[in-house]
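Board notes (copied after class):
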Amino acid sequence: MAALNKNRTKLIRIGQILRILMEKDHVSCNWLSKQFQTTTRTIQRDLYLLRISGFPVHETHKGVYGLKKDLLRHLEVFNDTELAIVIAIKDIVGQLGSPFQQAANNLLDRLYDADIQMPVFLKIDEPVTIDIPLFNKIVRAISQKKMVAFQYPKGKKNHDAIIEPYRIAYFNGFWYLLGNEVETRIIKRYALDKISDLKITAASFKNVPPDFDRLLKDSTSVWFTNKQDIEIVIMVDAERSHYFKRKKMYPTQKILEEKADGSIVVSYHVGDYHAIWNMIKSWIPYVAILKPEHLKEQLLKDVRKWIKWQRMCA
């Protein structure tokens, strides 16, 4: 808890330093150290973190610093706590590489635009709480291209996993570690809140696959694959078909047929059934699986199990 409070205080201080730099043409380390009642060495470390996080801080002359304000979006719309979060995000994504840096910059631009232009309310589900030291350790392993070993639950027991860590990803309120399992050479995903006893090994790996970030960008769930060769065909009843006409529920959605009664036949191509399974379930009783047959049977099995459980609960 003490370490968490220390990090929070540090980020708030750096956010306040950034605000001062936005408001003044230049400021000295000595002045900042007196302002925050800390050492000049600490202030220098804070300024260094701002620079490596992508903020255009530069030394105008020895011990005096300024900010190239024309290179920044209007960060004045954020308060001190929000600036601290911005800095933390940019620090983390800076270690994850260019695709994440660009994504973070785009996100901040959109937040700015929404704040000053759009009277829109956006509700984002609260994510699962993550272990910050674990998160940082994984980021370090990804940056250093080092394999990691950890414990992960399988059934009622934990099992050992050794992977080449490629990315940390966020989907639907959950954080995942994505990487290549050394034993099987299969890309796997692990929920961060289920990982325990993680260690960075001495073994290195060469590179993240060149198309990995593209796959992440094009995915709508953590169940992404390079090949999308499984076809699922469903029927959507007339009462709910307009939702599927207005929005693709999955990137590969294709309307095959519109029937006279208003219902529609829709196909999806996926690389893993899990990619679309929860979406289909969420539309019961307004959808029916037409093929593949085994998926239809699996859905019926799940529904029968739920009905039995529901009756027991009643």
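Comment from the instructor: The first helix runs from residue 2 to 23. The longest strand covers residues 157-171.
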